[in-house]
Amino acid sequence: MAYLEVLADVELFAGRKGGDETGAASQEWIADHFRNWGLQPLLGDNLLHKFDMLATVEKKAKLVLLDTELYGDIDFLLGSDYNIAVNSGSGKVTAPIVFVGHGISKPDKGWDDYGDTDVEGKIVVIIRGKPDNGENWDDEYSRTYLVNEAVERGAAAVLIYMGENVVGGATIMEEAYHPDLPIAIIGKTVVRQLLWGTGFTQAIYERVLKTGPRVLELNKQVRIVAQVERIKDAFSYNVAGVIPGTNHELAHEAVIIGGHGDHVGSNSLGHVYPGADDNGSGASVVMELARVFAANPQPRTMIFIIFGAEDQGLLGSVAIAAELPDTYDYITMVNLDMTGRGEGITGIGGGNAIPAVWYDFYSSLSDSMSGQIKANRTWGGFSSDHAWFREAGIPAFTCYSVGSHDHYHTTEDNYATIDTRAIGGCLSSLSLWLETLASHPEPLVDEFQAERVVWHRGYALRWAELSEPELDFNTAIASARNGYSATVLHMYSPTNDVERGLFVETLDHYRDELALNKTLNLGNALGDVTGDAYNLKGTVFMAVEGDDFSSADSTRMDYWNALGLRWIILDNPSSWLSNETVRSDKEGVVQAWKRLDCIVQMPLTDAETWLPLVSELGTSLFVGEWDDFAAVSEETLADLKESGAHLLVTVPNDDLPQAVAMVDQLHDLRVHVQPVGDDYGEALSWVRLTLDTGLEKDQFLDWITRHYGTW
User: Fold this and answer.
1) Superfamily, domain 2-55+232-353+380-441
2) How far apart are CA 63 and CA 44, in angstroms?
């Protein structure tokens, strides 16, 4: 806590902004501690790793809604109603405002907020968000895209609404830096006043945007003033120190522990953002861990990094991840971000990417200690410094304190609001985990490490014949740990009263056993897989062959469904259809499946034959190998897309070139792609072969992750 009190001291370090003297001074202070504890430089002969960056200083800001009917000019409050974006350009603009929805213009992806609207010389207002049409909008969600799109259309200034609370430090990256373009981040008060008298509220406008783009050209004038000076030859530091490993056979393997030490500085009114929780807390935990392990070196090498300029776009981690020396094999990176609030429970995300160590570690913990850890997958996207190590093929962990981080990027994020239980919980949990990693007796580097990092970001399903609970569950747990997130347990259809009685007993028994299982959940819908996988749990679906079902089974379905039956497997279309309509003796059970929202699985072979049934169902899933998919006509595929059916295709290694060549069609149809079978080693080889075939990693993640996420 002593380190944190100093880092959050506004008199000493004034918000620790990367690129100015406050950020440099705080990093130099940390480097002095590393040096005193005996850490060796990671790069060259200096613990400080310097990198160049864009940095600016806000000198003046003003935002005014002019000549309102009720209040005249409304002068909004800096820091409360709005903030000038970091790296905004300078200017004094008075112009009409235009709401341009999410600010996205991508007709090829089915969305165009601007359309033919002329925004030249006007102030555009963007409600930051992602259209809900199944496309991946991560790139367009970025402020870089939003600003550049507005500039390309001639906007004179940009106002971005990012949520009710106005945060300080929202940064414009160098790729979107325009010296003459004022940019402000606005909150709910500004949006409410801008929309006053239009018939729209913020909530109404956001609801409208869920149905499609909508431009609002308002007869209102806004004046924005931003005076922002660029710092010449700006730079920042990372602090990077090494504790060499003590075992000559393991010392070449390195564990990286890091967290950013910077924050966002102050605004033009002199209001300082102390950055105690974000991320003085994480930096302080990294420092204490460095002190402890420097006095107690481990078999493996440990590298401690305090990143600079994270809050200005992960600039420090970008710089150092690209310069990691090849002296070491990096087995994992553990990143700490916001560990200062909560009740002592630590979120540790990423164990699934290093299963050889994590699961034994977690299962060995006492109940009291495991209760202090919330295990999950590592954060996706580029939300913190772990991301660039993950992109380099290093298993990356995200660690944080579980709880409400209410003062995020506000002037109230100060030392007085820190909870010692949160800091203490992170220290105790992470010291155990890091010691386990650093002292694991067997080598942890393997040739498929990079592929493992990618594979464990996705989801895969496996099918298994029902045997008995303990065996089935142990196999499902092992498979989930190997990246096969869901197991579909396949039961045969009961055809008489005796079999139905046994069927009910089986469902009841499995449901009760799953309710007690800490690592598996009973699946109710396809979407459960993503949530369970994030929490490092497997999903088990109870499935039954349904071809022999009749309308007489429709009433039984309610009872079976209550016992956990959600998945129906069909194989024979002639059992269900006559003259391209559902047979009369099957109508009742089909209606029951739709009412109960059962998942109905059908083969991709002869997919066109199944189409009349698909229109009568709720959730339809077509499953097949690549040859089955390739044989389906384009007309039928279009019909399946229109029907809302989901497609899962397993692609053998030999067929990967054809699948890669059809990546655009697979994306258009949102086809979930996975390898044949459920062997872990073969899955990792499949990942490598797919990427070597020429598929971009982002496209591959569409195959194994994002397409499923749209289901």
Assistant:
1) Zn peptidases (3.40.630.10)
2) 47
